[in-house]
Amino acid sequence: MTNSLRALAWLLALPLHDALAGEVEMLHWWTSPGEQAAFAVVTTQLQGAGVDLKDAAILGGGGNSAMEVLQARAIAGNPPALAQLEGQAIASWTLLGFIQPQDEVAGEQEWDRQLLGVAPRVNKIGGHYMGIPVNVHRLNWMWVNRALLARLDMDPPTDWPGFLDAVRALRAKGIKPLALGNDPWQVALLFESLALGMGGKEYYQKAFVELDPVALGSDTSRQILDRFRELSELVLPTLSGQSWDQATADLAEGRAAFQLMGDWVLGDLLARGVAVPEQVQCLPAPGTQGLYVYNMDSFVMFNANLPKDHLTIARALASPDFQLAFNRAKGSIPVRRELSLADFNPCAQLSRIDYDRAEAAGNLMPSVADSMALHPLYQKAVESELYRFFNQPDLDREGVIRRLGAVARSASSKG
């Protein structure tokens, strides 16, 4: 072997932060226009702290592909220094011993006192902050192309019967009713809003957060699945495998009337130069007024490639100035309670108002479809059943209920 080949082999064997001095790799799945604008804020913030960031973006809006890459790299002993994680995945990686606690910075910045209440619920495992929380997203939004509805003299629906009536009317006029990509996480997110809007928060909590077999086998579940099948029959002919941001482009450009999706849509609309809420309006998903379905993005650091300046990085990513700039771009709200949203978009301001009201009323609901409520294994099982039911007309609801019940029993047996 030549000296140059030996040097190359040695270099490739090194952890990335040693091989590329001063460069810190971050794995994430932010690839849409709004997400890229938000990631640019991350890069700028860390550069200001003297840290060069290597972008390791993985395509796939739901993050499933990114998690597969992360698992493979962690098993191989070469995870990235930083990674975007959500919800229950933080606890899973913590239990495996892979990630670094953030207690020192959490104590300095008084996270227990300063952060919105959902942040410790998601990021604090066994009394230790394992993730750096950066935002809160609201998921039960309905985004409405105002000009399209005005041209048809239609009002935005406020309940699911009204939504289905609107879908039928739009189809009759040859207009795509719903901006939606036909992939599992988008379909599961649509179902989540339907289940909450029809069943209410107690049903949603029992059936899809606690995976209670009685709630899953109830007549309420049957009614919701019947409505879900009705919706699938109406919208499937207009769907494709487009990404969520391609669906948002359909909404923005008047090719679709509605999108039921989290407020990362706001970040994308703003990145596209769309006036919100003047052109595209933000309203609670039908039947979910007063309820707030949340998820949040967090950053974690992996012990195997822990940067030497990890405290500097954590302080920079948890700072108020970063929170403001990042969330303005992302469409979400800052996780720090004391920050003013006076210069945020009106939809983000409304999100914070609704968050505070929901928190006071006990109406904050973790997202099932977006990693907040269930262990990733059970989340994927539920998502798979809903996706198959949505796409396969020959699948009957009783079979879905039986299989969801089996998932619930498996989760219960594992404690």
From TrEMBL:
Keywords: Signal, Transport
UniProt protein name: Probable sugar-binding periplasmic protein
Similarity field: Belongs to the bacterial solute-binding protein 1 family.
One Pfam family named in its UniProt record: SBP_bac_1
The keyword Heme belongs to this UniProt entry's keyword annotation: no
Function according to Swiss-Prot or TrEMBL: Part of a binding-protein-dependent transport system for a sugar.
InterPro entries attached to this UniProt entry: Bact_solute-bd_prot1, SBP
Signal peptide region: 1-21
Superkingdom, taxonomy of origin: Bacteria
